[in-house]
Amino acid sequence: MSDAAMATVFDYFHARRRRDLAAIGSSLDPDVVHQGVLPDLVCEGRAAVLERTSASIGDGDSGIEHLELHAAGERVVARIAGSRFREIPFLAGEIFMVFTLRDGRILRIDDYRTREEAFGAVTMPAPASR
Prior knowledge:
Largest sheet: 6 strands, mixed
Shape: globular
Order of helices and strands: HHEEHEEHEEH
Mean pLDDT: 88
Strand order of the largest sheet: 2-1-6-5-4-3
């Protein structure tokens, strides 16, 4: 499943870059949950995740300078770094997201502050930073 999971997450990020909410929505399971770094930052269901996504891509600048993906079975760990994450004090310029897939769609997105937390969530050792 790693290749298919990686392709789905890559397509998700490409759709975000294009600001294509229809494509983003089609990649999400109807019951998707996006859990942010803080416990109160949670979106439940496709409509809520799309609403939050729309707000975050609305200004036209992705603020992303680096994107790194690692396949882990039906999960994909993404490291995203750039200006938009340097503006958030508790993120230190980057965020790590774990995507969990089911039947070819994104079922969960869990955000983490550190590489170790994200890779620990998928029970694989974190590769060295580049």
